[in-house]
Amino acid sequence: MAWDEWEQLKAQVAEQHATHTRINGLQGEDGYAKPAGGGGGTGTLKHNGGPWTKAAGTADGLQTSTITAKVDLRRAHDGTVGGLAGLSSLEALRSVLTSWDERLGRVREECGSLEPKLRQVAVELAEVDAEVGARAKAVVVPGTRRGE
Question: Among 24, 46, 96, 140, which one is most buried in terms of CB atoms within 10 A?
Fold first, then answer.
């Protein structure tokens, strides 16, 4: 078997058994993403810490607003003990207050836990982006000049 024939057979087999990647929303006609920029993308992956920082800010805002909601909820129940004394609805009202107080407390704790983690993700991903960018710029490709 000649070398050229062997190379042709290998290329045919590789083409038949090529690995395809499925990407939701970027599928080609056959259900697989198209290589080399096909499928509607630009062919480059970009990252921005903005969404992570915004999510961290939202978590921080929710933490603050749950504290305010708990204070407002307690204030709304002030005076009900005297006005509902002896009624069975008083115990149900206390139960609802306790339940919401606990739920809001858990939401506040979760948001307090998430906020610094989300900020850290933004920092770490930005550092990775900068490092990868620096490494990519350091690659010298023969026959080309930087900036082309």
Answer: 96
